[in-house]
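Sequence and fold:
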Amino acid sequence: MKAYEWEGGIEDPRLIELPDGRYLLTYTAYDGRTARLCVATSTDLRHWHKHGLAFGEGRWRDLWSKSGAVVGRREGSRIVATRIDGRFWMYWGDTDIFAATSDDGIRWQPVTDAQGALVPVLRPRPGMFDCQLVEPGPPALWTPRGIVLLYNSRNLDEGGDPDLPPGTYTAGQALLDEGNPLVLRDRLTHYFLRPEADYERTGQVGNVVFVEALSLYKGQWFLYYGTADSHIAVAVAPRSFH
């Protein structure tokens, strides 16, 4: 894996539990030229086994790919990867958001159309807070009323949301169909998290909140996010869906 991970490093971890009790980590490897989505597993969160590129060494090896958010459902306080029509699902990408499926959670296949092109599930929207790019946040949460996807987005330097500074990263929410994860059913018209505190507005990259992990603890959701590419912060909300 060193050829894919050096010298750019690794980033964008997303963690979910598999039905067999292992922990599944999707992460981005960056060799200085191309970002590639990778997979690792662990039984104890301390010792990890890297399985390599999520999309394999074939056609998709050199595809720019990032930020894999696997679809899971809540089991008590745990979020466990769930199968839909016999397959695991994952949202990924950092321009549009695409989808991929897997039989085992390790080897993934991007969803394509009849011509073999990637199928966008979520696109940027002109003139809005998410007008430049969209990128998955934490593992998506399956509920009987739909799949909740928290996502990151960037405002254009010019021609975007006039109420946000140019280049601002905010977080949005989308609802996808619980039976067909490719079908977008609803989407917030306004961000739910934006840079406000000094540590969110000033840092290595200013005006950034970037959501990556979600945990249910003692009846509250804890949302962990990066700020200004410099710190890690947490936001808390009461449990409001089951």
